[in-house]
Write a structure and sequence with these properties.
Layout: E1 2-3, E2 15-16, H1 39-48, E3 67-71, E4 79-80, H2 82-87, E5 96-102, E6 114-117, H3 118-122, E7 128-137, E8 148-149, E9 180-181, E10 186-188, E11 190-192, H4 197-202, E12 211-212, E13 215-216, E14 223-232, E15 238-248, E16 255-258, E17 263-270, E18 277-278, E19 286-288, H5 299-314, E20 318-319, H6 329-337, E21 345-346, E22 348-349, E23 361-370, H7 408-417, H8 420-432, E24 433-439, E25 447-449, E26 454-456, E27 466-472, H9 473-484
Parallel strand pairs: 1-2, 4-20, 5-19, 6-17
Antiparallel strand pairs: 3-7, 5-23, 6-19, 7-15, 8-11, 9-14, 10-13, 11-12, 14-15, 16-17, 16-23, 18-22, 21-23, 24-27, 25-26
Helix pairs in contact: 5-6
Bound molecules: zinc ion (ZN).
Zinc ion (ZN) binds at residues 439, 441-442, 444, 457, 459-460, 464.
């Protein structure tokens, strides 16, 4: 029989609950006033805290994680919960206290977009760094062959151009710290022995036929070489690890969230003189849209702001542990005692015209998180680029410099508009267009023999009419796959209209 509070204990009780807030897990424990939020919002936030950028480890300068983000000036929240102290969140915080104003602004914060004060960004608000570690090893191969860190010489198979290796040190073929690097730049120059010993023997007298196996920066990523570490593996091979850092200043499209599942993307940065200001001269860091409140019912966020305002004026951090506040009106009393309006609103003025806003505007410090989904990691476009070997269609995905899918629904649009030539251009000419040879007698694929400059049909021989047909390479592949199943896909050709 468990008592919730010490005062409840009777002779029948055997146990005492530590705290009602202990019902929540680590992630949900970070939410202030969770009992005042609609429950799905707490669920969203419990998922989102994991994406917040912060100080993930105090020894991050010494670590070589494959990738990681670090927030520049992480702050403890003004409004805390008691589990936060226990789990060490205050020592490794993930967020900053933003002054928010809850109002519409020029229509640039509709649909959960947020507006940020440009001056706040310039002061370092929500700045972070992205790190990635690249590594390379000098492997030893059976037969005494070894990899070598060096600037590859002309004639090495896969040699790029002298320009590509300009950043590398002449001495060891490794890039220097504090070098600015862009996508595709070589970080570690390396050559390896040929893959097959046989091909080596053939060319032995001509030149050492080594291949280029340098480590390059990822496409779509840039940065500055932060750390270069030269070490050894357990097998005694030379090992190089290079950490590259990239500054991430908040930009349009970056994702932010309060601790109440109220996420949004940056929709506009506004010059500080154009930002609205309160009668006390406070200029908010961000402006969020009031439409985020009524349907989502995250009252906890409003209470957090009120508690944060009290914390600012009294110098005492607010406590918002779950189920601790039985009477929220006490919070309002404290706010009034601190000299504010009871509902957290302020008289504000338009920064552009100087006019006073008729409505009082909710303006308060609220703890905001910069989330992991940054535009710099997602932005992607392509004109020309690599294709898959099998289908000759453009590759998929940003990491492979892929094309943007022109899917079924997009196709339906063009069909609906009757724009047949545009449809052909997207799906054929700009994709995997090929010319195949077809024997008009049997309808099967014909062959062109380049050595004899002759076309012939593998079935009917040389005497038949062989025509060129334009089709997608994927269709040619389909014909050949059917043939591999023992089917004979025959094309019946007609004159092109
Ligand atoms: Zn034929």
């Amino acid at each position: 029989y468990i008592a919730m509070f010490e005062d409840d204990i009777t002779a029948e009780h055997t146990h005492l609950e530590i705290s009602p807030a202990a019902i929540l897990g680590i992630c949900a424990s970070i939410i202030p006033f969770p009992e005042h939020n609609q429950s799905p919002r707490n669920t969203y936030e419990a998922g989102m805290v994991k994406q917040a950028l912060g100080l993930f480890a105090a020894n991050m300068h010494l670590r070589l994680d494959t990738r990681g983000h670090t927030l520049h000036y992480p702050q403890q929240p003004l409004v805390k919960t008691s589990p936060m102290e226990i789990i060490g969140f205050n020592k490794r915080p993930a967020g900053q206290n933003f002054i928010i104003a809850m109002m519409s602004f020029e229509g640039f914060n509709i649909e959960d977009a947020i507006i940020i004060n440009k001056a706040s960004i310039e002061r370092g608000l929500a700045r972070s760094h992205f790190f990635r570690t690249y590594d390379a090893e000098e492997r030893k191969y059976p037969g005494g062959e070894v990899d070598k860190f060096e600037i590859p010489e002309r004639g090495v198979r896969g040699f790029k151009s002298a320009e590509s290796y300009r950043l590398l040190s002449e001495e060891d073929g490794i890039i220097e710290p504090e070098t600015q690097v862009n996508g595709g730049d070589v970080l570690i120059g390396r050559t390896s022995p040929p893959r097959f010993i046989k091909s080596y023997e053939e060319f032995e007298l001509m030149q050492p036929n080594r291949r280029e196996t340098s480590k390059n920066m990822r496409h779509n990523e840039k940065g500055i070489v932060d750390t270069v570490i030269i070490s050894e593996t357990v097998d005694g091979n030379k090992l190089v690890k290079i950490k590259v850092r990239d500054l991430r200043i908040p930009e349009l499209g970056d994702k932010f969230s309060s601790r109440h599942g109220q996420k949004g993307v940056l929709g506009m940065t506004v010059d500080e003189p154009d930002m609205p200001f309160t009668s006390n001269g406070v200029i908010p860091d961000i402006i969020v849209n009031p439409h985020a409140m009524p349907s989502r019912m995250t009252l906890g966020q409003l209470f957090e702001g009120i508690s944060g305002k009290i914390a600012c004026s009294t110098g005492k951090l607010g406590d918002a542990t779950a189920f601790e506040w039985k009477d929220i009106t006490k919070l309002q009393e404290e706010l009034v005692n601190a000299g504010f309006e009871f509902n957290g609103r302020e008289t504000m003025y338009n920064g552009i015209t100087g006019e006073k806003y008729e409505a009082g505007i909710y303006c308060a410090p609220i703890y905001y998180q910069k989330l992991y989904h940054l535009v710099a990691d997602k932005i992607h476009a392509r004109a020309r680029g690599p294709v898959q070997i099998l289908t000759r269609q453009p590759t998929e995905g940003r990491a492979r410099e892929g094309g943007l899918r022109f899917g079924e629904m997009e196709r339906d649009c063009l069909v609906g508009h009757g724009s047949a030539l545009l449809l052909k251009e997207r799906l054929l000419d700009e994709s995997d267009r090929t010319v195949i040879l077809v024997c008009e007698k049997c309808g099967l694929l014909a062959v062109y023999d380049r050595n004899r400059d002759k076309k012939y049909c593998p079935v009917c021989g040389e005497g038949t009419i062989i025509s060129k047909v334009v089709c997608s390479y994927a269709f040619k592949l389909l014909l050949q796959e059917m043939m591999s199943l023992g089917l004979a896909p025959r094309l019946k050709l007609k004159e092109k209209i």
